[in-house]
Structure formats: structure tokens, C-alpha cells
Amino acid sequence: VVAEVSTASGDSSPGDGGVIPLEEVERRHILHALSRTSGNRTQAAELLSISIRTLRNKINQYRIEGIEIPEPAAK
Fold this sequence. Notes:
The protein is mainly alpha-helical. Helices cover 48% and strands 0% of the residues. It has helices spanning 22-36, 41-48, 52-64. α1 packs across α2 and α2 (41-48) packs across α3.
């Protein structure tokens, strides 16, 4: 059974059954967590239940892919 993912931005393609690749869902989820924590990597990792190291690796991968990552808010 394949679960359909609904997106607020509605950018799944017509005809693809509304299925978004897992890698894209993960990226959006990570970026959302960073947004909710004002870019605080430690808090975002805790929200996502992943290690800070895993989060840093993902952020580095996204930067290599040209995806803009928000910087932590100044204290």
C-alpha cells in the first residue's frame, strides 16, 4: 500500500498519483524543522529525533545540491 502525501504547496505532478519521493519528503521535513527552530541545528535534530551529526551531513548534502539552508538566528 502506497500512502499519498498531501503538500501545502501542491507541487506533486499530476499523474504521479500524488506520491513524492522519500528523499524530497525528508528534505522538506528537515527544512521545516530548521525553520521552526530559527535555524538552531541542535533543537532541529532533537525535533527530528536524529543526531546532530546526521543533520549536519544532510545540510552539507543539500548545500552541495544548491539548496539554500537558513543560517541560525543571531542571539
